[in-house]
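Input record (Table S2, row 302):
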Amino acid sequence: MDELTRIKQLKKEKNAIILAHNYQRGEVQDAADFVGDSFGLSQEAASHDADVIVFCGVDFMAESAAILSPEKTVLMPELSAQCPMAAMITPDSLIKEKEKYPGAAVVCYVNTSAAVKAESDICCTSANAVKVVESLEEDEIIFVPDRNLASYVARYTGKKIIPWRGYCPTHEMILPGDILLEKEDHPDAEILVHPECRPEVIDLADKVLSTSGMLKYASQSGTPEFIIGTEIGLIHRLSLENPGKTFIPATRFAVCPNMKMNTLGSIVRALENNEHVIEVRESVRVKARIALDGMLEVGRGD
Ligand code: 13P
Ligand code: SF4
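Output record (iron/sulfur cluster complex):
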């Protein structure tokens, strides 16, 4: 039996669904029940009535699903699929930062551990970072861990943003020169970039959007050609959903190796062996949930 047929059989047996991020391998996206960005995946995890969620993404995404749906079994096919940016801040270092700015609110990007979320007032994703910050009463905001997203938020809000020094190694690979080179060859192409990109890349963009924001925008725009400044896995869905339009990656080097760890074989193993179960300590989960619920309540901004 091939892997796809076996996955279908196991999903039925276990009342399981597969959630996959927009950067997953094409064949993993095609096997999933829902493919989306961090915001959409959190919404789906919170609302679906399956018993088992197989999460094809990275650590913080599966952890968010476990925080939002403690009654479900959340499985991560590849435990080593970790987001390096999320590892750039610890709860202890955030507690020290909060002591330095006692009047500030804490906004954490969803790319953080459950323990960091538990120390934050509210969470955000790339789809609603500006909207979340604007929703707060405080004028001073500690924004962790992405310095690029923090600088993007600072541009579009009147708030004082205190950034952390984290970054996404994959999005840092995209350089202004890459965009300018592609623009020379494709002068009519629209430039869409993710807010995790460097500020010098953001300066060149026509639109700054989350991964699902890019999918929505590309389908609605009359432009037939786009330069895409994000992880190259997004090109799979962009091309599939927009036949006749061309999507040019800003650089082929923008690959997130962690996002590429899940395979059809690892999904079969996860379902057969009920591995690897993601659990969050209840005292942490309850506090982290407040930050995630706040994020979902604010809604999407793109
Ligand atoms: P999105 O929420 O826009 O899909 O981004 C998630 C991520 O990890 C980007 O690197
Ligand atoms: Fe983390 Fe960057 Fe990979 Fe997203 S693309 S999971 S932020 S390393």
